Amino acid sequence: MAIRGPRRVREALLALLFLGPSAVVLGLFVIYPLGRTVLLGAKRCNAQGENCRTNGLRQYTDVAQSREFRHALWVTIKFALLTVPAGIALGLGLAVLADRHLRGIGFFRAVFSSTVATSVAVASLMWLFLLQPARGILANTGWIQDLMPVVKNPGLLNDSGTALLSVALSSVWANLGFTFIVVTAGLQSIPRELHESAYVDGASPWRRFTNVTVPMLSPTLLFVGIVLTSRAFQAYGEIDLLTEGGPVPQDSTTTLTYLIYGETSIVRNDAGLQSSVAVLLFFVMLVLAAVQLRGLKSRIHYGQ
Amino acid sequence: MASDAAALPVIGGGPAMRSGAVGIDSVRPGWRKVGRYVVLAFVAFLVLFPIYTTLLASLKPGGKVIDRPLVPTDLTLQVFKDAWTEGRLGRYLLNSTVVAVVVTAAQLTTSVLSAYAFALLRFPLKGFFFVLFLATLLVPLEATLVVNRRTIDTWGWLNSYQGLALPFLATAFGTFLLRQVFLQIPKELREAAQMDGLGHLGFLREVALPLVRPTLGALALFSFLSAWNQYLWPNLITTDEDMHTVQTGLRLLNSNVPDIERYNVPIAGTVIAALPIALVLIIFQRQLVRGLTAGAVKG
To answer: How far is it, in rounded angstroms, from Cα B181 to Cα A70?
Structure first.
């Protein structure tokens, strides 16, 4: 019993040593800035950044009710609705398509995974070169131009009706590799016997898909959905490179993240307003996470 | 452990992917097989289309790109050379590599240590710290960068490797991933080691680290990719032309398009920037699948 005391102390000191580096970094660059941002966001300054006074919660409700914030929130929601369901459906479709015992299937798997190697900058610039009206590939392909004059004039990224859709297209494409890889791994973990017994019972391929594949995949699909949703709410690079939040004056692609950091954003030089929007973004994402976790608890079928 | 299926290679497939496959697939008549290849080829064409046009556009002189955009004619490597020099891509690839390697090495170290503490050490307020670590996972990067930029500015580290890397030297994600594995070490094993006089440092080196090695590989690739692909943060703290990463360097190259005849120089830059990561992923495909699915697997 005599060594018990000192050993406890030694162990606690060791824990301090082990936890220290992580705790310092996370404390300085996640926890401290979060708290500081909440305080900054409660302040209201004049255009020169002087005469600040603390407005408290009212500053947040003011920002939340502002036209700019509500617009950016709506754009963000639309962007998520355009990218998340399509991303899940395409990833699932590709994964099911490639989940066969065929000669050369490895090649197709490699192709479907390939976009995972593109960063947001690389993917966005690729799509910029495809979509730009003057020298873009699509705008200068005759039959596309005839079918859809908007690709040339004013260009898909410059028309307020198609800009967000075009950014979403590039984003879905860029995320395809990730979704495909994760769903494929999920498909391969479904016990073969389940498919075989459904087959023996005479279930059609469609019924095997809806009654075996989809329920067994539901944890995977939920995971993909959560990741894609958070990526949609944090989208910045594709908007910065493709549209800069425009086309103006509608600001059709100004999402919440772009509203905070965008070079052409109205709050760009006001740390207080930037912080208010950042805190509200955090809040919105927390609510979303809570909703998604409820979905996890109530509707998900876990195998085994 | 993470499910074994998650460790199967996806890119390039595996020869023995479904070794016991009889029944469902094998009775498929020949024409249905052909139909499936047609669908696969069509979808592959759609997925590859942006990559194909990008490659082609960077292999032609600027004036020729849109003449026949889908046909390889007038091929040249000159545009790549221009992109390499004008885009200063050598320098930016170096910057990205330095930052990504430092971040990866640091994240592995800090995660192993903190995961070990949470899994195997007893200390006061453990539950509190654990919840605090957990909570940092909920905070989106975008909610912290305004203040982080000020911090880095105050320390005079704008336009520096320290500034680029420092906020990302630890990760709660890595801590939890490794903690899950450490928790599977049987108590008896630790007790027996203790009887033999093996301290925690020795136990970490001899028992815990070897056990966690596959997960460490996946985490390493995940950390490296995340650090390499950073866009917003380097944009916020970089103004010096020497200190861009590949990602913000591409942005710069694209905004300084020279003349209309050479507008495809940034296109070639994009290809150059994508190549190293494509190579890394081909080499480490096994780790990639594990890394990407890590969050989806029950611990």
So the answer is: 44
- For the segment A87-94, the average pLDDT, to the nearest whole number, is 95
B-chain residue closest to A175, CA distance: B47
Distances from the Cα of B271 to the Cα of A26, B4, B252, angstroms:
35, 34, 15
Q: Would the CB atoms of B200 and A230 count as touching at under 8 Å?
A: no
Residue A201 has pLDDT above 80, yes or no: yes
Q: What's the pLDDT at B3?
A: 37
Chain A residue numbers touching B231 (CB-CB < 8 A): 119-121, 236-237, 240
* Residues A158, A139: Cα–Cα separation, whole Å: 13
The Cα angle at residue A50 between residues A49 and A52, in degrees rounded to 5: 100
Rounded Cα–Cα distance for residues A91 and A238 (Å): 20
Distance (Å) of CA A145 to CA A170, B249, B286: 19, 32, 43
CA–CA gap between residue B183 and residue B199 (Å, rounded): 18
Q: Does the distance separating the beta carbons of B143 and A25 come in below 8 Å?
A: no
Q: Distance from CA of residue A103 to its chain's centroid?
A: 35
Residue listed under structure tokens 């609510």: A287
Task: Give me the helices (H) in chain A, please.
Answer: 4-26, 32-41, 57-65, 67-98, 105-113, 120-131, 142-147, 163-188, 192-200, 205-208, 214-233, 237-242, 256-261, 271-299
The three-point CA angle A294-A297-A301 to 5° equals: 135
Contact with chain B for residue A291, Cβ under 8 A: no
Q: What is the pLDDT of residue A141?
A: 75
Q: What's the complex ipTM? A: 0.89
Domains belonging to chain B, first-starting first, are: 25-84 (no CATH), 87-296 (1.10.3720.10)
Whether residue B14 is predicted with pLDDT greater than 50 in this model: the reply is: no
When pLDDT is cut at 50, 70 and 90, the band that residue B4 belongs to is very low
Summarize the confidence of residues B262-274 as an average pLDDT. Answer: 90
B138: tokens are: 């909920």
Please name the member of B25, B231, B295 whose beta carbon is closest to the beta carbon of A223. B295
CA–CA dist B297, B78 (Å, integer): 47
According to the model, what pLDDT value does residue A3 have?
A: 44
pLDDT of A152 over the 80 cut = no
Q: Do B51 and A114 touch (CB under 8 A)?
A: yes
Map tokens 């502002």 to a residue: A66
User: Would the pLDDT of A165 be above 90?
Assistant: yes
Q: How does pLDDT run across B166-178, given as a tens digit for each residue?
A: 999 999 999 999 9
